[in-house]
Design brief:
This protein is mainly beta. Helix content is about 10%, strand content about 55%. It is elongated. The two termini are about 25 Å apart.
Length: about 280
């Protein structure tokens, strides 16, 4: 399963790396002399840009980011064990094969903060958000609220157009951030002016990486199926999923976008199956 997702992940990495080579953005401005005989910078709309000399030690972003990626898992289950057979009678590893391109992860960040620790090059980052995971299965397996939690559907003539397990969490990541970008101040708008000579000013973008852990609480889980004879069916239940999800998390900041990844510290189910979830994708 890991091998199937590697080509996709490599394509994402190569595309993002190529984009990251553009580490500056430009804006057309004017240099003028104000009434006090001081030089000021004005953009094409007549707004004065003032160079900042001090960066904030704590920066806050509300509704400032969305992640788009893939959900997958590593299956280390011993299907010959009594626990696995009680959970899913007659099951084997192929039962839980995923449609990798359709098993997606979306994270929505409600609030995030960055705290300066050492010269703005080492920072503490934390956030609060929603982690949405959709695991799309290839096979006609059905989840139940009680044992056995998973069964193979042998109904004659029935075909599946959708079969997914959704697991959604409120999540809180805590990471140590290393920022290698050059911070010479930047520019901010203060007031308006009209005329002058045009030049080009540049603002650097951040780049670096972060790593840490996250804690997530399961607030919604469901098995959704669409079949030829039943149509859409949805079972809302905890489906024996662990209520807490602790994960290792990391991101690589490439300027406008970042690459992110997470890997859970333990299996997603309370017992029976040893399935450890992970996510990879792009953070905007």
């Amino acid at each position: 399963m890991v091998r199937k997702i590697l080509p996709t992940a490599l394509c994402v990495l190569m595309s993002a790396a190529a984009y990251a080579q553009k580490d500056t953005s430009s804006v057309t401005v004017q240099v003028i002399t104000d009434k006090d005989n001081k030089k000021v910078i004005v953009d094409k709309d007549g707004e004065v840009w003032q160079k900042t000399t001090r960066r904030k030690n704590i920066t806050t972003s509300w509704f400032g980011g969305v992640d788009l990626g893939f959900s997958n898992f590593v299956d280390n289950t011993n299907y010959a064990s009594a626990g696995a057979q009680a959970f899913a009678p007659n099951a084997n590893a192929s039962w839980f094969d995923l449609r990798n391109g359709k098993s997606v992860n979306v994270n929505i960040w409600l609030i995030s903060q960055k705290v300066n620790l050492i010269n703005h090059n080492v920072n503490l980052k934390y956030a609060l958000g929603l982690e949405l995971n959709n695991y799309r299965f290839k096979n006609p397996i059905r989840f139940n609220s009680n044992l056995p939690y998973v069964e193979w559907d042998n109904t004659e003539g029935r075909s599946y157009s959708k079969n997914k397990l959704a697991a959604d969490y409120v999540t809180f990541p805590l990471m140590l951030n290393f920022d290698f970008g050059k911070h010479t101040g930047g520019y901010s708008v203060t007031k308006k002016h009209k005329k002058g000579l045009e030049i080009s000013a540049k603002k650097t973008k951040e780049w670096g990486f972060s790593a840490g852990i996250s804690a997530g609480y399961l607030y919604s889980a469901r098995n959704k199926t669409i079949t030829s004879d039943e149509g859409k069916q949805k079972l809302k239940d905890n489906l024996n999923l662990n209520p807490w999800k602790l994960s290792y998390v990391a991101e690589v900041n490439l300027g406008v976008i970042s690459l992110y990844g997470s890997y859970a510290m333990k299996g997603m189910f309370k017992d029976g199956l040893d399935i450890t979830p992970y996510n990879v994708g792009i953070r905007f």
